[in-house]
Structure to design on (144 residues):
């Protein structure tokens, strides 16, 4: 059990600030954003018992999907900010469509006449662009 807590802590320290800044974009206030962030990491802890197969998306995308899902679950429709644009994906149109607009990869490939391999390459390039971006404005993590 200690190992799983340690890995969640590592994920929190690696991605928590970025996920918190996303939660702040979605949530109406800081308290709601903190609750979303905590709920997301609770889900991660619970899901650790499940083995990931070799075809899983990169952990960063999984974490972003989880924070969006948690926000939708925890905030009522009157509190959720609609039509938000995640700053992290301003220059990554494919990731924006897959994550924010919830378009399936299959539909994206069909619409843009791409093979899955082409789409995978584009996703990798966009992820590298995000990782290398000097303009990431991560919010300071809340103290728990």
């Amino acid at each position: 059990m200690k190992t799983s807590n340690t890995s969640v802590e590592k994920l929190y320290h690696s991605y928590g600030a970025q996920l918190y800044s996303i939660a702040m974009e979605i949530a109406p206030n800081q308290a709601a954003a903190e609750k979303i962030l905590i709920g997301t990491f609770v889900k991660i802890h619970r899901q650790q018992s499940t083995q990931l197969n070799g075809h899983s998306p990169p952990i960063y995308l999984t974490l972003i999907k989880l924070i969006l899902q948690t926000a939708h679950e925890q905030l009522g429709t009157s509190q959720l900010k609609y039509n938000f644009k995640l700053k992290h994906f301003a220059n990554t149109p494919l990731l924006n469509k897959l994550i924010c607009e919830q378009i399936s990869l299959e539909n994206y490939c069909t619409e843009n006449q791409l093979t899955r391999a082409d789409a995978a390459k584009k996703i990798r390039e966009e992820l590298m662009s995000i990782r290398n971006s000097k303009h990431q404005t991560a919010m300071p993590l809340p103290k728990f």
